[in-house]
Amino acid sequence: MIIYLFEIIILCLYPSDYMILRRMVHTKCRGGRYLFSDVERLVFSDNQVPWSAKFVGYNPPEYNSKAILNKPWADPAIDDPSFKPKWNELDGDVNRKSHTGSYSISDGRPLNPEGRTGIRGRGVLGKWGPNHAADPIVTRWKVEDGVKQLKNSKPILQFCAIQRRDCGQWALPGGMVDPNEQVSQTLRREFLEEALNSLEASKDQSKKDEDMIKRFFQNGVVIYKGYVDDPRNTDNAWMETVAINFHDEDGKSVGKFDLKAGDDAQGVQWMDVDRNLDLYASHSNFIQTAAEKLNAHW
Ligand code: BGC
């Protein structure tokens, strides 16, 4: 009863923390056709998601995209005799540890820590088990003629959003953590490539952007670290991320930069933060937490 009351208080006061506390069941990686394939996921109810729930005859289809075979960044096929992964460990350059704790192995395959997804294999993901990403949430206040804009008496936050080339959805300018790379490096690299088009900038411009981003990205606030409800997830491979907020309080550094889409992004803009945002994967949840921490309109 006390726990129940505690949950209600948290739900009313801090809705986004409540979501994390309650670990909502994954939905974006369930039902429908798996991306870039003609394989249909097995459909089942929310209470059949946890591996601990009884599901007699659970036998989902298997899908392993041919497009990732033999790619230098991808694992070999699970039954390749040369493939001897060290699950739940740092395996050479590959981080096979999960932010969620220790995951189980069944029939030689890692099991999605959030439960069933209705499809086996690793789909289009490069790694069996956790696939690590990092997401910079770069924010500034919405200002017009030098005045902070308000909605419902709270200042409006803007964040740097990119439009993904693969699915056309708006998202954070995040990306995969390369083998042996620190999350802080991934955050800087992805922002420079996708939001400032560093890959096509002149050497001089790149250097200036890099120096500024290095300084600005020194003080970030961790918004989320864990599993992501991503449409690519399967029973044996899934996405995890670390989302960090870098806020430009007076709009004098990144906030005044001209954004320019590059690499995996086909569009970029400063987007107003609001509860009606419809973003890729769990990105709206991350933005909500950042807005609440900065006491902005949501
Ligand atoms: C994206 C990240 C996202 C992660 C999980 C990565 O491919 O670049 O922005 O958080 O997938 O969905």
Tell me which CATH architecture of one domain applies here. Answer: Alpha-Beta Complex
What order do the SSEs take from the amino end to the carboxyl end, as H and E? HHEEEEEEEEEEEEEEHHEEEH
The protein's oligomeric status is: single chain
Task: Estimate the mean pLDDT confidence.
Answer: 90
CATH topology of one domain, what is it called?
Nucleoside Triphosphate Pyrophosphohydrolase
Class by helix and strand content? Answer: alpha+beta
Name the CATH homologous superfamily of one domain.
Answer: Nucleoside Triphosphate Pyrophosphohydrolase
Instruction: Count the beta strands.
Output: 17
Bound molecules: beta-D-glucopyranose
- Please outline the major beta sheet: 7 strands, mixed
CATH class of one domain: Alpha Beta
Helical percentage: 10-25%
What distance lies between the first and last C-alpha atoms, to the nearest angstrom? Answer: 31 Å
Number of helices: 5
- Based on CA atoms alone, the radius of gyration comes out at 20 Å
- Unreliable spans are 14-22
Report the sheet-strand fraction: 25-35%
Query: Which term fits the overall shape?
Result: globular
Textual characterization of the structure:
With 298 residues, the chain is of the alpha+beta class. It has a domain at 132-293: Nucleoside Triphosphate Pyrophosphohydrolase (Alpha-Beta Complex), CATH 3.90.79.10. 19% of the residues lie in helices and 26% in strands. It is built from five helices and 17 strands. It has helices at residues 2-13, 15-22, 183-195, 203-216, 283-293; strands at 62-64, 90-91, 94-95, 105-106, 109-110, 120-123, 129-141, 143-144, 147-148, 150-151, 154-155, 157-164, 170-171, 175-176, 221-228, 237-248, 265-272. The strands form six sheets. Strands 7, 12, 13, 14, 15, 16 and 17 form a seven-stranded mixed sheet that branches. Strands 1-6 form a two-stranded parallel ribbon. It has a two-stranded antiparallel ribbon with strand order 2-3.
